[in-house]
Design goal:
By secondary structure, the protein is an alpha/beta fold. It is built from 13 helices and eleven strands. The two termini are about 25 Å apart.
């Protein structure tokens, strides 16, 4: 799920995600680095990025789409930053892990809900206890999950999880190995547990293949960047292999996935729309990613975005973009 730690503001660093190559490595340098980030003006960042802070007691609304028997906001909170998965560097992972204590995760989710976001995409059993705690404390947030192990389905269903999608990395590997049909049994077992069954993927070809097979999953989770290309595929496509090969994000990828999403008659949830932070150098590129995504997908589709609100009100900022561009 796309995530951007640092919204730019006057006097702030140039990026939401500082470039991993420039990340300070010594403990003293890291302290100075984080200290400098503390000067960010949250109010100014919100003004520049279109956030609409809620007044006390007020809950804003984000456009919604039908999802099974409920309606989900067209902006869904992702789980990668909560679980220290930046897709950028070990340094950023460490900063996420340090910041996102259980209490801070709950605080961020409450802010998401106040901004109009009513769904959290969790990652299997990792976040399940925290989701139950959130609901027990009065939240009406829905949860959808990624999954790999059918043994987890009873616990997910009991906790109130709406849906489970077959994990994208596993899906893509099975597709490349000619074993995509193994995913179909997973879908049946999710439905048998009483939840909606989805497929996550980073490849438009997977969506097209499943549609051609007539499986009719309840939804897709669709990464707009195809980040599972092999070294050989990258060499053929680019003429060379960038490093790290696992984190190559190409400008031409989103339109291809948008087309696959539009062709699929069922809901699709676009993720990594900010290229895992790589489009976060400037406020205008953040806004452009939201605008182009909502314009490129179906009115019945939604977007999953990771939140790292250590330095600005990202729930409010991103919900502002969803209201601005997600009204279908």
């Amino acid at each position: 799920m796309a995530s951007c730690p640092f919204h730019e503001s006057e006097g702030a660093p140039q990026t939401r995600f500082d470039n991993a190559a420039r990340s300070p490595q010594s403990p003293s340098d890291r302290r100075e680095f984080l200290k400098s980030l503390g000067t960010i003006s949250v109010g100014l960042a919100m003004a520049r990025l279109g956030a609409e802070p809620a007044a006390a007691g007020e809950q804003l609304q984000v456009p919604q789409v039908a999802f099974g028997k409920v309606r989900l906001s067209r902006l869904i909170c992702g789980s990668n930053p909560f679980n220290a998965g930046s897709h950028l560097s070990s340094f950023v992972n460490q900063e996420m892990r340090s910041y996102y204590t259980p209490e801070q995760i709950l605080k961020t989710l409450r802010r998401c809900e106040a901004a109009g976001v009513n769904c959290w995409q969790i990652s299997g059993m990792v976040n399940l206890d925290l989701y139950r705690r959130l609901v027990d404390e009065g939240s009406r947030m829905y949860a959808i999950s990624l999954g790999r192990d059918p043994a987890d389905f009873p616990a997910l269903a009991k906790a109130g999880c709406l849906a489970v999608a077959h994990h994208g990395e596993v899906t893509d590997n099975l597709f490349k190995a000619g074993k995509l049909d193994e995913v179909r049994d997973f879908l049946h077992r999710v439905r048998d547990a009483g939840m909606l069954a989805g497929v996550s993927t980073h490849m438009p070809a997977v969506v097209d293949a499943i549609e051609s097979k007539g499986w009719e999953p309840d939804y897709y989770m669709t990464c707009v960047y195809e980040r599972n290309r092999s070294n050989e595929e990258l060499k053929k496509l680019l003429g060379y292999v960038p490093l790290p090969a696992r984190e190559v994000y190409l400008q031409e990828d989103p339109p291809r996935m948008f087309q696959a999403m539009r062709n699929a008659p069922r809901p699709c949830l676009a993720f990594k729309i900010l290229a895992a932070g790589r489009l976060c150098d400037r406020p205008e590129t953040v806004e452009r990613a939201f605008r182009e995504t909502y314009q490129g997908i179906k009115p019945t589709d939604a977007v999953i975005v990771g939140i790292y609100d250590r330095y600005s009100d990202q729930p409010g900022e991103d919900a502002g973009f969803a209201r601005r561009y997600g009204n279908a």
